[in-house]
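Re: [ENG-882] Designed sequences occasionally contain unexpected residues at chain ends

Forwarding the minimal case from QA. Structure tokens:
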């Protein structure tokens, strides 16, 4: 049986094709085609172009008129910590009274307070809450989502978080990519024994990998977390297992994590407010994506900006993600991050859009999505908007009207 062919016409397309990749729309900003059409066959895109150039023989099983809506690749949130218990509203209040994020962390709050709440939640509570969060993202047009562990910090609880992340994709049609983040904070059981914790976490990683629970490995490389040398021990094992790595790097200070990550050809380095010129060059050489997280920057009332101009100059691809987590970025709106990437980080709306599509795909090592091009997955979103910049301009409210994943419309 041939897979069903579906035609979407009456749409403005933002294909994000560009000169290097070719494809329809490559000559225009955003890969824009004002009056476009897309044909999908089963789970894949088979034709993209101007409606006026639709092949005459295009026999299709179903036809939809978008009524002028904007059709884009499904959005990709390449950095989230979606699985956790509790919240951190009390800490938010403390911070507003002048206590710093690092002081709260050193006093056993911060990440550790979420670890306690996560450990005491049941697996079904974690799944229910994380699924609700993923659903909110899906309703905004997110079709691929990365989810990190890192609030379990024991063999049992890290495994459980990764299992919950995997299970989200059993009830929702999204693609979930899991990332093991045992080196997020040092749990109290290992106080004063960080190197022993690293050794333990390596054993967990091997077991998680054997169970098929891990797609990538991440770590928090920071003076309040783990040193480049400690992280490198875990990355060496990731390399041995064939797992790609990414890093929370230079968020609160310049620890040189980025240079270390570059040696492991990291898929991405994330946050990067304190990234040095050497760090930028290391990322350029390793081809890592800079994942910028304006939600955390905003929530921490950070004033040190990531070195956007230097990253741009060096040709380092920039992605934008929510960093959804209860402490520093309790947002469930990737659309809002488009706006913040422009207002706070001065990205152009087109850079921000490429950051939640084509560059976000690359930050996850996915080559089958992120653009509208024949051969790629038919993951697309339809927005009530005339132009992609309209979504970067809006603050709040979702403009997403329809979501198609692997060629199938999702009931919103
Ligand atoms: N950096 C962050 O912004 C989050 N994790 C990290 O390594 C914050 C996590 C938290 O505060 O719960
Ligand atoms: Fe994060």
């Amino acid at each position: 049986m041939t897979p069903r062919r579906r035609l979407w016409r009456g749409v403005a397309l933002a294909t994000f094709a560009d000169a290097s990749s070719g494809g329809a729309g490559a000559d225009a900003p955003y890969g824009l085609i004002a009056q476009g059409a897309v044909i999908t066959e089963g789970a894949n895109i088979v034709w993209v172009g101007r409606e006026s150039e639709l092949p005459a023989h295009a026999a299709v099983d179903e036809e939809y008129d978008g009524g002028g809506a904007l059709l884009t690749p499904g959005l990709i949130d390449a950095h989230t910590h979606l699985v956790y218990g509790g919240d951190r509203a009390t800490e938010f209040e403390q911070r507003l009274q002048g206590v710093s994020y690092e002081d709260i962390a050193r006093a056993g709050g911060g990440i550790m307070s979420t670890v306690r709440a996560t450990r005491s939640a049941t697996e079904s509570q974690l799944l229910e809450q994380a699924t609700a969060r993923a659903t909110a993202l899906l309703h905004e047009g997110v079709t691929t989502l990365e989810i990190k562990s890192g609030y379990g910090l024991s063999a049992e609880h890290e495994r459980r978080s990764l299992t919950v992340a995997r299970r989200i994709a059993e009830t929702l049609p999204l693609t979930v990519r899991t990332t093991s983040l045992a080196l997020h904070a040092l749990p109290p059981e290992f106080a004063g024994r960080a190197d022993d914790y690293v050794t333990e976490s390596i054993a967990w990683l091997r077991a998680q990998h054997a169970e098929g629970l891990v797609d990538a490995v991440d770590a928090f490389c920071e003076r309040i977390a783990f040193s480049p040398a400690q992280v490198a021990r875990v990355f060496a094992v990731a390399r041995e297992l064939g797992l790609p790595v990414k890093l929370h790097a230079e968020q609160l200070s310049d620890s040189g994590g980025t240079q270390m990550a570059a040696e492991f050809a990291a898929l991405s380095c994330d946050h990067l407010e304190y990234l040095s010129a050497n760090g930028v060059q290391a990322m350029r050489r390793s081809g890592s994506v800079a994942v910028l997280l304006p939600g955390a920057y905003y929530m921490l009332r950070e004033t040190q900006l990531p070195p956007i101009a230097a990253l741009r100059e060096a040709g380092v691809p920039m992605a934008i993600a929510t960093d959804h987590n209860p402490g520093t970025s309790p947002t469930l709106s990737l659309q809002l991050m488009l706006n913040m990437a422009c207002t706070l980080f001065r990205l152009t709306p087109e850079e921000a859009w490429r950051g939640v599509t084509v560059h976000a795909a690359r930050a996850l090592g996915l080559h089958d999505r992120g653009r509208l091009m024949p051969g790629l997955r038919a993951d697309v979103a339809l927005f009530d908007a005339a132009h992609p910049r309209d979504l970067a301009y809006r603050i709040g409210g979702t403009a997403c009207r329809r979501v198609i994943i692997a060629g199938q419309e999702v009931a919103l």
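QA comment: On inspection the terminal residues look reasonable. The first strand starts at residue 5 and ends at 14. Proposing we downgrade this to a documentation issue.
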